[in-house]
Amino acid sequence: MLKWVFTNTQDKTYTLTGRKAFFHRYADTSFRNKWTGFFAPPLKFLDYYAYRVKFKGFDIWLSPSNQEKVIVKPWNACHYFKLNGVNVSETTFVCNKLPVMLSILRVENKAEKNVGLEIDMEFGINIRHMYENWHERGYNIEFNPVRRCVIASNEDKTIVIGCGNPSQHIGIRFLQKGFYKEHQDHQRCYVPGYYTIKFDIEGKGIVDIPIIFSAHPISKTKAINNFDSAFDKWKEMIYYKVSSYENIMHDFKINTPEKSIDKAFSWAAINLLQLFTENEGTGFGIYAGLPWFANLWARDSFISSLALDNLGLFNEARALLANFAKKGLPSKIDYENLAYGFADTGALFVNAVYHNFRFTGNRKILELLKDVKVENITLVNDLIDHDAHTTWMDTLTRRYAIEIESLWANNFRLMGKEEIAKRMMKKIKMLYFNDHAYDSLVEENGLLKRSKDLTPNCLFALLALDIKNNKVLDWLEKDFMTQYGISSRSKLDEKFDPKGYHTGAVWGLLTGTGACVFFKYGRIDAGLNCLKAMAKDTEMWNIGSMSECVTADKGELIGCGMQAWSSAMFITAIDEYLFGIKPDIAKGVVKIEPKIPSKWDYMERYSKRMGHNKMDLIIKRTDFGYAIKIYFKFPPNLKVELALDNAREIVVNNSKFKGNRAFFRVKGENEITVFV
């Protein structure tokens, strides 16, 4: 479950991350564009590196042509090469708490006799802001003979490259022969020279050589100090990170007949952990997507916080929300500035705060709502007029966007403003729904009319509100579903473009939301198709990750390969709408309303966190209906409301409930029989 193995990598990439840095590379070992390399945001430091192996008269670069396979795990990627007489592997790893990356070469001598080897390393320095292109930046290059490392700096922006403490004695020399080089996408990098490692390897012996890349965006001293920390402690750094993943992964486990969905669920959780960041310039948060969006976007963060709640990462969800609140609720947190006023920021924030409250019962989270000036939100004819250019489809002009109106209608209900919520709900049903749904309103001759753009944004309304409209659900299935997921524009819209960012591309956000909606309204097969499409995505482009968006016709990547809200909505769809687990800890109630696919004989969710407890939910199909087991780690003080659409009787711990619902106080272990 925790690894991917590929021999044919094609155009696949992988991304390794820590809280301070990330590394993005093609799985065939290449660095093909400006987004591959080593980053310590807000800067990029390294365009590429390459190894040249010399032994017994052979002289060969490690490259796609001699790579046998690549194995990607949550904490590293391992490239395997087969050379004549020796096996070589390179394992890449990014430290969790420092802006440090490791490239660990393992050389295995297959012969009985000792072999002498030399490994030359070439690396391209490119210290720049992430979106910057070709530049004429100069570098100060020095070789530190004590540390045996190369230090490249521009002012205090510094990267240190050198060998860590190896498994045996090695010799190192540096031939300084600096030159500029045009790299991919017209990138200009600087090659300081050649770093050579020389050693002997015994017959049938193995040697491990750790190469350290330590970068810092503002301090040469810290870059050097971090190199020193990694020099002796690189093994401990790896052990710590591997252990942290392995210790938590059993909490992110489901078991169903659809193994691709099981694996994708674990990796979606991994993606969110990988996207955590904590820097002085931004505070704690979650990157919107890598490698492009290495900053904190409110909408992506607040959508992701719902999944963090589902995974039981309550503290991380609260810290994320609090970071935005203390900064005055910006719509985007960058390293150098804040942006405010996006159309959906406040609406998504309120929803996320109440979601965390329901999952934890901790009222302190509600104090964050004082930073949302709800009293300043004005309704005109029971609708909210917002900025038409800053919805999630920010390439389009969308006034009175259906998702903004629906989110606020639900938020007013959550905040106890029932009359406002009812009026908005009535207006939304009247203006936006008939046999299909309308995206937004446009002004013509002083009058508001329905937009002619055929988008699936009604999905957000169907999820936030209780609006069961079978004609609209049919329309969504027929006109928007593709084998890759849900497209951002109807295939019948004259503006439909399968490659269009907001005019036809398939989005993980939409497909995940679609899965929620289809399960919510009993369209189980359609919901399952959405999950299958998203699960397939994890092995297509950025290995183990869910994409931002792909083309609707061929499924080709056109956005970020690792997108937070795609993984988040996949998790939310499975936990809250497939398994149907919705805790309200403040009220002492857990609603469980599973949607069981007709071809599934079982579905199991393990270590589901809620409050301070954990729950296992095990459902098995039987000759008479279902056998359900609900186990809690600690004796719970909770009631469960269980509902199954086709049940005629439910027996819980020897108590009988007629019909398809049962409301009961749970024990530590609960056995339930459902007759259908």
Please describe what this structure looks like.
This protein is of the alpha+beta class and 676 residues long. A nine-stranded antiparallel sheet has the order 1-7-8-9-10-17-14-13-12, covered by helices on one side. Strands 2, 3, 4, 5, 6, 11, 15 and 16 form an eight-stranded antiparallel sheet that branches. It has a seven-stranded antiparallel sheet with strand order 18-36-37-38-43-40-41. It starts with a strand and ends with a strand. The chain is built from twelve helices and 43 strands. Among the domains are: 245 residues, Distorted Sandwich (Beta-galactosidase, Chain A, domain 5), CATH 2.70.98; 109 residues, no CATH class; 92 residues, Maltose phosphorylase, domain 3 (Sandwich). Strand 13 and strand 14 form a beta hairpin.
Helix content: 25-40%
Q: Structural class per helix/strand content?
A: alpha+beta
Extended strand count? 43
Report, as a whole number of angstroms, the end-to-end distance: 34 Å
Largest beta sheet: strand ordering:
1-7-8-9-10-17-14-13-12
Summed up:
It is built from twelve helices and 43 strands. A hairpin with a 4-residue loop joins strand 7 and strand 8.
List the defining traits of the structure above.
Maltose phosphorylase, domain 3, single chain, 26% helix, 35% strand, 676 residues, 12 helices, Beta-galactosidase, Chain A, domain 5, eight-stranded antiparallel β-sheet
